[in-house]
Amino acid sequence: MEDKLLLVDDEEGIRNVLRISLADLGYTVFTAADGKEALTIFKEEQPDIVLTDIKMPGIDGVELLRRIKHENPETEVIMITGHGDMDLAVQSLKNDATDFITKPINDDILEISVQKAREKILVREKLRAYTANLEALLREKSALQDRLSSLGLRISSISHGIKGLLTGLDGGMYLVDGGLKKNDSDQIREGWTIVKEMVDRIRKMVLDILFYARERELKPETIDVHSFCQEVAQGVGQKLKERGIEFHQDLSGATGSFRVDPGYLRTALINIIENAADACQKKEDLAAPKVVFRAAEENGEILFEIADNGIGMDEEAREKIFELFFSSKGSQGTGLGLYISQKVVGQHGGSIRVRSQPGRGSRFFLKVPRSGPEEGESAAPA
Ligand SMILES: Nc1ncnc2c1ncn2[C@@H]1O[C@H](COP(=O)(O)OP(=O)(O)OP(=O)(O)O)[C@@H](O)[C@H]1O
Ligand SMILES: [Mg+2]
Hints:
- This protein is of the alpha/beta class and about 375 residues long.
- The protein has three domains: about 5-105, Rossmann fold, CATH 3.40.50; about 150-215; about 220-370, Histidine kinase-like ATPase, C-terminal domain (Heat Shock Protein 90, 2-Layer Sandwich), CATH 3.30.565.
- The chain is about 55% helix and about 20% strand.
- It has ten helices and twelve strands.
């Protein structure tokens, strides 16, 4: 695109001659006969370079320079001076004029002066692009740093969590040992319950971490939807009941077969059901904690729905829950659960949607097509 140049002189003859020379140099030239007209054109056209006579009736060159710089300080303004304009020339310098050319104007000098102004503009543009690049780079770097330090933080909090579980395990074993020595079966049972609980939690945590860390392949099988759902519900339903949470299942619409990796899809669903149970327990004074697991056919796909009447989530949380390591559970959670669920469902060609409000429970919807993943599709993070 051609550069725009505004030429201001009260003498029509000079305007005509200079206009031709400047157009020859490749500029789109606008002309004005005085300062007032010049300002109007300047605001409309936003030229990069202004060439103005220093002595003009009304708004003179210096005043015009001042106003243009006020409007856009990056405009290059070249002053045309005559004999005896020394005083005005000094004032122009103070107001950041780019250059001076004296009357009568020599074409070569005009070309050099305008060229210099153009170079200044180009350098500034380059500098700006460079600075923008640098800023983007800096932003990337600090985002990376954030991610790394949150990874470190999570790893130390996971280790801390495991340490806590191991201490719990020690406590359970201590009770069992003491019970054995005293032949106290109540104490043995109490200790054993703790041991089982701790082992369960450690297993879950380690499996989650392994799942995240390792790249494995999906092994799709064609299986019966209903029996798959029943199997998921049976295992997890028992656990929820033990935690005092009502578990309700509605699998009447889950018919036919689909092609999935049953192990992975089970993990994906159980993660969400366990979250639902946690959400119920986090809600204080919840009279009837309840988790509903529903599965049905919808538009040729299988739609799983997991609903709870727990604490719910605000918008900020809703946006973050699928992020790796996002957890509100401190050392009780790794923040891997939903990240993994979403990966698995995504790799089955499906999707997860959430509806939730603080204090009003949550509803997770998982859509899984019947056709399932491609053979050998990788199940781990991309
Ligand atoms: N049903 C729900 N109701 C309210 N909050 C939820 C629900 N499900 C998930 N969340 C929020 O999303 C976060 C992330 O869940 P995610 O399963 O990924 O990790 P986690 O449960 O904290 O840890 P874990 O790795 O042990 O599953 C939870 O910490 C919780 O804040
Ligand atoms: Mg979870």
